[in-house]
Structures are given as C-alpha cells and as structure tokens.
Amino acid sequence: MPCRSMASPHWILLLVLLFIVSGTMGAPPKRPVAVPFGRNYAPTWALDHIKYYNGGSEIELHLDKYTGTGFQSKGSYLFGHFSMQIKLVPGDSAGTVTAFYLSSQNSEHDEIDFEFLGNRTGQPYILQTNVFTGGKGDREQRIYLWFDPTKAYHSYSVLWNMYLVVFFVDDIPIRVFKNCKDLGVRFPFNQPMKIYSSLWNADDWATRGGLEKTDWSKAPFIAAYKGFHIDGCESSVEAKFCATQGKRWWDQKEFQDLDSYQWRRLLWVRTKFTIYNYCTDRVRYPTVPPECRRDRDI
Ligand SMILES: *[C@@H]1O[C@H](CO)[C@@H](O)[C@H](O)[C@H]1NC(C)=O
C-alpha cells in the first residue's frame, strides 16, 4: 500500500473530526487535575477543623469528640464530571464516616452519594453508594475496595449526564444508574446540585451496624484531600436546564453508556467486592426495582 500524503482525504477527515471534538467544549481529564481547594470549594462548618497545605492544593478534615467538619462547592451544577482525590482516615477509623456527594438543595431532592464507613485497624472500609431522585433514596449498594484507601490518594468521581450517573473509583466504574424515566423512575435532570464532602461521627450505624464505637482516645481522625477538579455545567440554583446542554464532552455519544471494557470492570467489581445491593434484595424489594432491570447481569 502506498504511503499517503498529508493531504489525503483521510487526513482531512481526521482534522474535521478533531475540530468537531474540540468543539464540544473540553475533553475528559485523563489524569487527576491539581485544582486548589479555594477555586471551587468553601468550608461549610467548623472552619478550624480544616487544615490547608501547599497553598491550599491539599487539605485535611479533622474529626474530634467536639465536631467533624465539611465543605461544599461554591457553584451549583447540572451535569458534568466531578472528582476528588481522598486518602481516608488511617488506623482505627471505626465509627467515622467520610462522605463525598452531590445534592440538590430542596425537599424533593436529588442526591448521588459516596460514603466511606471506617473500621478498626486492619479491618476493611466499606464504600456505600446511594442515589436519591425526587426525594426517594433506599438504593444502597455496598462494596469493599480492592486496595487500602488509607495508604494513598485514590480518585473518586461521578459522571452525570442526561443518560446515566456513573460512580468511578480510580476510573473503574463501580455503579451505574441509568435514566429509566420510560419505566417511571425519576432521574436527576432538572435540579442543579452542589458537591459536598464531610467527615463525622456515625458510630450508631457505620461500623458493623453500630456495634463498633468510635475510640475517642485515637482522635483526631484525619481524612486528606486534593485534586478539587470540577467540570460541570454551572447553573443558578433555580435553573431548570443547562444552558450548554448537548454540547459538552460528557453529553457525547461515548459517554452515554459504558463501553464493553467498562462493563467488564463493573462486573468484576460486582462479582468480587459486593457486600450488598438493593437490586438483589428480594426481602426488601420482592419485585425488582425497575431501574435495576437496566443494570446488566442482575
Ligand atoms: C469492618 O470489619 C468487619 C470484620 O472484618 C467487617 O465485617 C465489616 O464489614 C467491616 N466494615 C464495616 C464498615 O463495618
């Protein structure tokens, strides 16, 4: 086959494609973006329990017997990609919960939750996720992680568009919530959300169902954060739609479903690390919740 010159139709096609792709306003981040805390976030309460390092590019949340603490995004967003790098409370973290979530502000609220339930030294954390739509939650899934989340930073992120919500751990999908409005299930699409994180004491339920209590002699409990990247459609709190709907990278075809590699990774997580999945809880839900039917392999 002869070599093709730069001006061959294939090259022109490629340039046109590149132009179209760059026209979708930003590309997905391939690696964690080192965005400082203050650009996107502000503390929510107990300001003296947040410590700043490296000019605010890394922070710590401290929990002691007086209080936990937390922070929230300055902006509200309708769709996008939201990630955080977190190093969870090391050692004896039993009774503590570290959360990273998106939530709308009203009563019929939408919420997308990561909750990390601490444990005694050497015992595994549980990652609980949940999705609330129109104020209705009760969609818990629980997994163990395939690494020790206290030893190093790992990234936790949410991809949210009109088609689905995906939870990622280090870019591996651990959960998908598809838009099933055709099956009568509400999907978060018209209420902007803020991003929140917090560290607090929840020893009434968190560890072994509340049997393991927080050992305050080990305080302060410290979770560390960096990479405060947000790539979302910023909207006023009252907005009902995103002004650039359909034009951003997360709206494009390749982000409207997982690809086959991602489905295989998700299946790997489900088969190897699942502790609990409301979709398979026939005691609590005698009939399969409709959205679970789009949740392959269930
Ligand atoms: C804590 O460790 C125990 C014992 O290994 C385990 O059963 C439990 O699932 C772990 N995690 C939590 C949050 O309770």
Top keywords for this entry?
34% strand; eight-stranded antiparallel beta sheet; single chain; Jelly Rolls; mainly beta; 11% helix; 298 residues; binds 2-acetamido-2-deoxy-beta-D-glucopyranose; 16 strands; 3 helices
**Would you count the extended β strands for me?**
16
Low-confidence blocks of residues: 1-7, 15-23
Order of helix and strand elements from N to C terminus: HHEEEEEEEEEEEEEEEHE
Please give the count of helices.
Answer: 3
**Strand portion:** 25-35%
The oligomeric state of the chains shown is: single chain
Mean pLDDT: 91
- Estimated helix fraction: 10-25%
Q: What gross morphology would you assign? A: globular
- Using the coordinates shown, work out and report the CATH topology: Jelly Rolls
Number of separate domains? 1
Rounded to an integer, what's the Rg over CA atoms?
Answer: 21 Å
Distance between the first and last residues' Cα: 48 Å
Mind summarizing the main beta sheet? 8 strands, antiparallel
Class inferred from helices and paired strands: mainly beta
Known CATH architecture: Sandwich
Subcellular location: Secreted, Cell wall; Secreted, Extracellular space, Apoplast
Signal peptide: 1-26
Glycosylation sites: 119
GO biological process, one term: cell wall biogenesis
